Structure formats: C-alpha cells, structure tokens
Please model this.
Amino acid sequence: MIDWIPVVFVIFKLSMFSTCMFFAIKWHYDQGKKGGNPRAVLRAGGKVAAIFVLALLLLGLLTFTLVRTMGLDLAF
Model:
C-alpha cells in the first residue's frame, strides 16, 4: 500500500501544475490582447530582472562571507 503513495502524489502534483500553468498562460494571453504599452512592460521586466540579479549577488556574497567567518573549507 505504501508503494502507491509516491505514485499518487506525483500524478496529483503533475496534474495540479499542468492545470495551473494552463490557466496562467491563458490569463496572460488574455491580458496581452487587451493592449497596453509594450515599452512599459519591458521596462518593468528589466527592473525586476535587475533587482533579482542584484539580490542573487548579495545573497551569494552574504553566504560566502558567513562561510568564511565560520571557518568552513571552500576548496573542492
């Protein structure tokens, strides 16, 4: 009986992700048909991407500093 639990959960997860992705794509497609200023959308997307990259670099630097402070070995 316990062997079926991962199978059921994976099938459920795939079906939920598929359904959510379908509705997300449909919603974005419908929003795109409404119109709007494409330059504003590109500018906002660029800002979000830049903030994400900066946050990722800051997190990496913070992690590296914390690891060095704790004296962990970073050699491969």
Q: What stands out?
A: The two ends are 43 Å apart (CA to CA).
